[in-house]
Amino acid sequence: MASGTQTDQLTTPIDPGPVVLSVRVDRPSPPGGGDHVRVHVAGELDLATAGVLSRALLDLIQEGWRRLDVELAGVRFCDGAGLGALQSGGQRLRAAGGTLTVHDPCWSLRFLLDLFELDQQLQPRGPARPDHA
């Protein structure tokens, strides 16, 4: 650095607020009433929250469910980690003879599905919705 030159670095702490992802599972009634489960996801599906969805999907697969419909109408944003959670769940289900279908993906997830050509694996249903801040 030349003499007389000073470089200032400004760092601004960012408070992302509470990290929340809601996962609700609707099982058929009565128990044993089928192999189909609807999983409702709401919030931001990203690096901070993808593990919550991964765990829920893995638990359902281990319980023996073979058809998972993942309803994403409440998801405001999805990044690569969120896509990874869905893809991993889908791969595990296919290996067990099942299917995972995503419904009502936000625009960011639809973009990632198109970018990585994963439409066949996750079978998205419904038009892409705008992401919300």
From TrEMBL:
Residues 39-102 form the STAS domain. InterPro entries: MlaB-like_STAS, STAS_dom, STAS_dom_sf. This is STAS domain-containing protein. Pfam families: STAS_2. It comes from the Bacteria.
